[in-house]
Structures are given as structure tokens and as C-alpha cells.
Batch of 3 targets.
Target 1
Amino acid sequence: MQNGKQGRVLIVAGSDSGGGAGIQADIKAVTVMGGFAMTAVTAITVQNTLGVHGIHEVPADIVAAQMRAVLDDIGTDAVKTGMLHSAAIVEAVAEELSRLDELPPLVADPVMVAKGGASLLENAAVAALREVLIPLSALVTPNVPEAEILTGREIVDVEGQKAAADALLGLGAEAVLVKGGHLPGDLIFDVLATQETIQIFSSPRIGTRHTHGTGCTLASAIAALLAQGVEITAAVAAARDYVHEAIRTAPGFGKGHGPLNFLAVLDDEDA
């Protein structure tokens, strides 16, 4: 826990029955990073390490009502969005956030495709993300395929990541983290851009299939740290270290893309 403060994080995302991504990963990551997780579930997925086998969308008014119930009573120090699935849900989430007197840091993870290839975001929702959610965001965390869809730019290297980040800043986000894990190479480069600076983080690639939920976990870990008052660059650096160790020590569950070791930080502290 940073600064002795347990920051409140409202997570707006879909449920993963396999426990490796979505709301389940978000809750674990926020908790391990010292935060208090609250949720508004956007969809129920039938999912395991082999893929997504079904999606049941929660009505947009129920998503908004979950958010309102939490915000009007408990409040929040940060918001993290993940799988929003439809334009109606994106718009409902943005409307609920816009009614707040003061918007806490919003970490928007534009979840579009599951690790196994299933689509988690309807095409019509992409425009809504650009128009109503990204402008509210303190940080947007797309991977390379998501950044390509959001910007219409092909990304093949770090320079492409920088250009995409700049384009997303132009949509109104305060900061953008373009993750490079989908690009080839022994090193993974992530580009963090703000209106003032561009920073490049790197880490060695770990040869493993157990990477399910890395994007959800990273964004939620960042949100938990922002909720505790940690500066954004330090929050990104600490969250990246956490996810790297969580991948390295993954438990190996499942027959496909397995989950991370969410207790990686606790293991490190106990060592």
C-alpha cells in the first residue's frame, strides 16, 4: 500500500468465468496493489483459457445504475474501464462519469479482442470510445492492435507507437500508454506519452503462453496506484514490474492461455 492510503477503484468491465482476465483479474490486481475494488459488470462471458464461448451483455441502464450506486455512497479515487462491449454501454459509462463534480483519474483499457481471438467490442462502440470516453481519460492503455484500430495507423515499431500515442492524445486523453507486446523482438517496449513528455519502458520478453489478462491486470494495477496518489510515470513503472513478475511466475493453469500469478508482489515481499 502506497502512502498508507487504501485508494478506492471503481472497475467497469466484463466478467471472466476463468478468473484470469476481466473483473476477476481487476479485483485481484487492485487488491494486491493496496486498493479497494468496486465493480460495475458490463457483460458475463463464458470463458476459460481456451477462449470465449459466449457473451451475455448487461443492459446499459443496469451498468449505469451499478456505477451510480457505488459513486453516490462509497465514492472512488480512480476508475478503470475494460470490456464495455457496446456503444450504448460506452455512452452510459461516459454519462455517469460526466455527472461527477470532480472526475477522478480514469484509466481506460480499450478491450477489443480476447487473447483467443474473440471480439469483445462491437464495431459501433469504437467510435464511441474515441468520441466520449477517451476525452475523459487520465490514461488510455491500448495494445498495438487496439491502437491501430483507434487511430487508423499501422504500427510496426516504437516510432509507430509514438505516433499512435500522439494521435490518441489529440483525442483528448491526458496520457497514453501504447503497449508493444504484440510486436516481434526479444524486448517489449511500451510508450508512455503525455502532453509534455514521451517515455519508453522496456522489459525482456518471457517465452510463455500464460499471458491471459495481462492488459486488464496492468491497467488495474496502474489505477490502484493512481488512486493512492502515485504519480503516473511511477505508477506505470511499478505496474509493469508487477505484471512482468506475475507472468514470470504464472501458475500454469489451463490448457490454453493461462492466468498470471496475481500474488507475485506478495511473494516478492515475503521472499
Note: The CA atoms of residues 181 and 259 lie 16 Å apart.
Target 2
Amino acid sequence: MIVQLRYFASIREAIGTSTESATTTAATLAALREELIARGGAYAEALGRGRAVRVALNQTMSDESAALSDGAEVGFFPPVTGG
């Protein structure tokens, strides 16, 4: 399936792009994140399991157990603090 990926804030800066299309066999957001981490380099650095990363599926905050579907939009961003 093909999904649209969006990266925000420091994740966008680390990866060097704000959006991309990706072909994936991942069934869940967690599996997709693992596929991206497996790319290595900036993806592993920005999305690694030790990093605080929030995920949205089709513009709704989601748990990583959420199921993916063809054409889904997935957003990755760091937690936001206010003050």
C-alpha cells in the first residue's frame, strides 16, 4: 500500500523533508515506524524508539497500534511544550 508521510518540527529538520509518499507492507503505525527506523541514518536518529514521537493517522492523534490503510496520511512530530 502507499501512504503519505508528513514530518514536523525537529523531525522534519533531521530527515530533511516535510512530506513523502512511501510504499509499505506495515499493518500498523508501529510497524511503519519500524520500517522507517530500518532505513537508518536520519530516520533512525529522528524516529528511534528512545525518542519521544507522537503519531497522527489521517489528522487524528493515534496510538501506534492503529491499523494502516492504503492512502492513509501519517504525521510524525515531537511532543510540543508550551509556556
Note: DSSP finds three helices and five strands in the chain.
Target 3
Amino acid sequence: MRGGHLVLESRSTGRVLSALDAVTGLDGVQTRTPSLEDVHLELTARRNPLAPNPQEQQA
């Protein structure tokens, strides 16, 4: 949930929307296809190499 909204990510959008329609209806549903920028950020996002690693802190 984000700000009172449910966010779903799926590669099977048609099946998800069909199931959602069968259960609750599609009133207020919005879909969005990732932009080229979204894909680029997903593929190139790197964790800050200077940030502490939480797994190392637990050891």
C-alpha cells in the first residue's frame, strides 16, 4: 500500500486484471507501463558502495 493505494506489479497484467474484476470490479483501477527511464533506473540502480552493509553489521 502506498498512500492509501494498492500497487501491484505483474508481467501477466491481463490475468491479474481479469481476476481483480471478478472479485471487486475495476472501478478506479489505473494501469501504467514502465517508461524507458523506469527500465533504465531498474537496470542501472546501484546501492551506495560507501553505505554500510546491514548484513555485515549483524555479524
Note: DSSP finds three helices and no strands in the chain.
